[in-house]
Design brief:
The protein is mainly β. The protein is built from 3 helices and 23 strands. It starts with 5 loop residues before the first strand and ends with a strand. It holds the Pfam family SRCR.
Length: about 325
Amino acid sequence: CTSGSLRLVGGSNSNEGRVELCQNGRWGTVCDDSWDNTDAGVVCRQLGYDLGTAFGSAYFGQGNGSIVMDDVQCVGSESYLTNCTHTTNHNCGHSEDAGVRCAFCTTGSIRLVGGSHDWEGRVEVCDSGSWGTVCDDYWGSPDAAVVCRQLDWGTSGTARSSAYFGQGTGSILLDDVQCTGTEEFLTNCTHSSTHNCGHSEDAGVSCDVCTSGSLRLVGGSNSDEGRVELCQNGRWGTVCDDSWDSTDAGVVCRQLGYDSGTAFGSAYFGQGNGSIVMDDVQCVGSESYLTNCTHTTNHNCGHSEDAGVRCAYCTTGSIRLVGGSYDWEGRVE
């Protein structure tokens, strides 16, 4: 074997078993001290899966030979188990051999495959660790809306049928799906788990996402105020209030069709969620779009610092001339 390679031994199928690590041409086991799902996830990703569940106490049987790792503490981003913090000395016996059960996905999760963008594609559903497709019988807009909302790609979408994004493989897991549109998960919708379909009927969706650079105000008592949210890559994110002032607020409000704005910080209109997409915003005031202002995309903020604005069409006491042939004449407003 190649040093650093892994194998799973003693499971009922190839995706589970006692973890064995190759060292100096021989297979050895791993002690279960501190062994958890983060460590299991690293093992499973090294083996080509997406996630893993940890087992201890020689759940998949006792190995033999050397115990080559103990006190494993992965952070979860490692590419190889040997990159994780660990000790090579141990106080273990093979009754403590560590194991894992790997999976390609979590039952009930969904994904979109084959689209030109992340927010569109063939709908695939996870069942028992494997991906399958959905038949397009009765597939419609309420079903698409549930898919898009579950994946955080907005709240509506266009239903696609007849393998619009290409034919999938594997099992067809759902048929005759009839969502009301309010379900949290696609698998909560009324459906049949038996089908009369082929993959030429695989269902898909195109989610209705926001346009990058567009703005919205959320959480205010009316439409002219709220937490500032900016669309980036099809999803809404917030703006940190570091250096946030009325000049920045003015740019936001003019982009939204108002004349002026007042700045608010410290999540005055409530905390958002998702990404914080801008920090240290410093507009000069003449920008047409907030994204034209000097800013950073890295941040040191939490959502307790979400920026907000209150917009207005004019400032109390100001006047203007309307309807004249020149700027210096007109009806006084």
